């Protein structure tokens, strides 16, 4: 269950068996300028697009998946999802490279860009020009 609202709001609407997940943030950007830099030596970008959906993958020199993400465009927004960099490949600009690759698939630059960020990602995206639109709460029913 997900809610653009606080953990407390979600908790108050759910039975006790539901567990609240770590805090996230619904963020948006109308103009988010990202400085493109070349990938580190040996890394390569793959971008696949099927209709309004794009997926970007950064492949490490050893062939492992170093970073990836998806995006989809609607008539009203461009939404990024699951932007992730593997632990051993962080601090190399790979996440930004994924965002830039996905942004290249945008058809309408007038539409807002949206995403849900973790607590760690919130600061990174804020430094890139994104703003928090709302807290984003999530809850799950744990498996027995």
Integer-rounded radius of gyration: 17 Å
Secondary structure category: alpha+beta
What is the 3D form? globular
CATH superfamily of one domain: Gcn5-related N-acetyltransferase (GNAT)
Element-level helix/strand string: EHEEEEEEHEHE
Average pLDDT number: 92
Low-confidence stretches: none
DSSP summary: helix tally:
3
Largest pleated sheet: 9 strands, mixed
Helix amount, in percent? 10-25%
Tally of strands: 9
Amount of beta strand: 35-45%
Assigned CATH architecture of one domain = 3-Layer(aba) Sandwich
The CATH class of one domain is Alpha Beta
- CATH topology of one domain, what is it called? Aminopeptidase
Cα(first) to Cα(last) distance is 18 Å
InterPro entries: Acyl_CoA_acyltransferase
Protein name: N-acetyltransferase domain-containing protein
């Amino acid at each position: 269950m997900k809610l653009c609202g606080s953990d407390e709001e979600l908790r108050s609407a759910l039975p006790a068996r539901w567990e609240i997940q770590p805090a996230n943030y619904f963020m948006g950007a109308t103009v988010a300028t990202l400085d493109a830099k070349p990938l580190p030596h040996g890394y390569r970008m793959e971008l696949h697009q099927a209709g309004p959906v794009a997926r970007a993958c950064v492949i490490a020199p050893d062939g492992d998946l170093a970073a990836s993400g998806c995006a989809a465009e609607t008539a009203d927004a461009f939404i990024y999802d699951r932007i992730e960099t593997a632990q051993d490949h962080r601090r190399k600009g790979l996440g930004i490279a994924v965002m830039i690759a996905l942004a290249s698939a945008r058809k309408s630059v007038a539409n807002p860009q949206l995403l849900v960020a973790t607590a760690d990602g919130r600061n990174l995206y804020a430094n890139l020009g994104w703003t928090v639109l709302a807290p984003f709460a999530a809850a799950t029913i744990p498996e027995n």
